[in-house]
Each structure stands twice: as C-alpha cells, then as structure tokens.
UniProtKB/TrEMBL annotation:
Its cofactor is FMN. It comes from the Bacteria. Gene3D superfamilies: Aldolase class I (3.20.20.70). One of its GO terms (molecular function) is (S)-mandelate dehydrogenase activity. Glyoxylate binds at residues 53, 159, 194, 299, 302. Keywords: Flavoprotein, FMN, Oxidoreductase. Its EC number is 1.1.99.31. This is (S)-mandelate dehydrogenase. PANTHER family: 2-HYDROXYACID OXIDASE 1, S -2-HYDROXY-ACID OXIDASE-RELATED.
Amino acid sequence: MKRQFPDMVALRSLLAPRAPRLDMWKARVERAQTVGDLRTLARIRTPRAVFDYTDGAADSEVTLARSRELFGSLSFHPRVLKDVGDIDTSIELLGASSALPFAFAPTGFTRMMRADGEPAVARAAERAGIAYALSTMGTTSIEEVALAAPRLRRWFQLYLWRDREAGLDFLRRAQASGYEALVLTVDVPVAGNRLRDVYNGLTIPPQITARTFIDGAMHPGWWFDLLTTPALEFASMNSYGGTVGALINQMFDPSATIDDLAFLREHWSGKLIVKGIQRLEDAVSLADIGVDAIVLSNHGGRQLDRATVPLRLLGTVVEELGSQMEIYIDGGVTHGADVVAAIALGAKAVLVGRAYLYGLMAGGEAGVDRVIEILTSQIRRTMALLGVRTLAELDPSYVTLP
C-alpha cells in the first residue's frame, strides 16, 4: 500500500477540539439520548430520599415493574413502502389541538425535585404545545402557574377531600385562572405503602436529620436551592410538616363514591377527566354520567401493588366505550415508542409523569425541554418506521401484546 503524508486540512478538522463548556450539567443534559440517561443524572444530582420519592412505588413495586415490562415486551408490525416523508404528531384532545399525543401528568411536591418546580414544567409544556395538569399537592399555586405560562393548556388535578369547601375553593380558583379541565383522581382512598419513603424518613418539607445532613453534603447544589428559595410547602393549602402518607390519610375522603361527582359537576363548568380507572365496570359508570375523559391508571404503581397494568385493560375499554369519551392511559411510559403503542391500541393520549421529573431533577427547565425533545424524536421515528404519517393511521394491527 502506498503511503502518503496526511492532508493537514483534513487532519485539523478531525482533531478540532470542542469548545469547553462551563456548565457541565447542562452539557450532560443536552447529550442525554434517553429518559434513562436523564434518570441517571437525576439520581446523581438529588438526595436519595427525593429521588426515591419520584422513582419508587408501593410495597414491592411489582406494578411499576410489570408496566415497564409490558411496554418493553410488546411487538410492532410495521408496513413498508409507505410515504413517511412528513410525520404529523398532532392530535385533538378535549376539543383543542395538542402538538403531541401526550400530556404532563399531575405530580406532587415538584419544587422538592428542583427549586424552579411547577413553573419550569409549565413553561416547557407551553413551548411544546401540550397540556400540563397541576397537582393539588403541588408546591406552586394555581395562580402562579397561570402567570408563568399564560398560553399553556392548563388542567387542574383534584382529590375528593373530607373538607368539601376546600375542594370548592380549588375549583373557583382554577376556573378564575383559566384552567380548562379538572382531573379528578379517584384511586387514593388511603395512602399506598411507599416503602422507600418510609425507609428514607421522607417528610414534607424535608427535615435535616443526621442521615439527610450526610446525604446533603453529597448534594450541596440541591440543598443550596432549597435553603435560598421560598419555603417548600403545599401552595394550594395550609403548610404541613408530616409524611406524605399521613397527609393523604388526614385530608382525603375514603368514603367518597361516584355520587360525589354530581357535586363537582354543579360547581365546575369545564371538562372533567377522571383518573385512576382499573376496571371496565367503573369506566362504564363514568361514561353513563357523562365525563369527558378517563385515565386508565394504577397511579404509577404507587397505590395498590399488583394492580392492573393499564395497557392490558386499554383494548377492552376502548372497544366498549371509545365512542362515548376520550380514553387516556399512564404508567411506566419512558419512551416515545410506548406512546405510539398506546395510541395504536386505542388510547387518545398518554399522560407522562416520572419522565419529566427525571428531566427536571437532572437539569431544571432545560431538562424538561430535553425530555420533550427525546420523546418527540422517538415518536416521530417510531411512526416512520411503522409506515404511518399520522396518529390516526395507527390501529391495533401494528401492535401485539405478549
């Protein structure tokens, strides 16, 4: 083989060093290619108790594992030689357009994950053109989120409270602040047994014990944010200083029934979504009273362990009720292909929770943006590889569950 001196111009382009990045964490967030990458960064950046609150589930966490396993073990059946040059990920939810077939689910204590909390999530969702449901257990008020993201499709999540007047106050404030939908969560009559929180001694707000002090020394940035920003408390209710489970058992009404939904209908003029459905009979009952949408959900595995995996139930509910109301699912969604599979099996949309919290913990608002970018790219690529240009083209023939 004839040797030659290297072309110095080409060599310089190969050896060109990258400009140094002063913000190492921002660079790592930008390089993340999966939600799993961001989860890894989140685990490094946040104290163990905070990460475990987001990452964990009830008891042995069987439900959460099954949800993820089912998404991972399904099979796709693509079509070929189809024009996929122009992919459209938009969909209509509750009578208005959504740029993507997912919304951000309500999650509590979001400022515990990162000081910028719910406003950061809301702004990212607003830019992406998707809905965001603010939790009653949020750490930013109804009004502050509305001011932070005035063009956001805002949903408000509510539980049935022992104190009905407190629930009515939430509804009035949400309506006054332009929230378009109420998400009523019905699978929390009592708190699930979230063992990671028990073992970690997690309280709201976090208490500085000997154990948390040592952990905090390894996460000084998180503690600096906590101690130099407004106090971490429930923005929609009075301050509370106990465990999550104790709060739930104290505040939520375990005697609530479907008849209580009439109470909400009298005082809420917007769309009504009921979240936490795990049986066809309950879905039928809600369809009969005219709710606008339901979410097939096991609360991300955080309530009843060994509960139904929503993806398993989806086809049956869609076949029975798909023409009467919109049907969403959540739980275990960590990849855009999970979203596509759910849409193919009949879901109108998917609610994403843990994934955006991993992004928030890893990189704040930029981390949430990165989650949206990753999921969007995965959705578009999966659609193209399946041979479909629009979400409406998807049907159960594209997916087989094991």
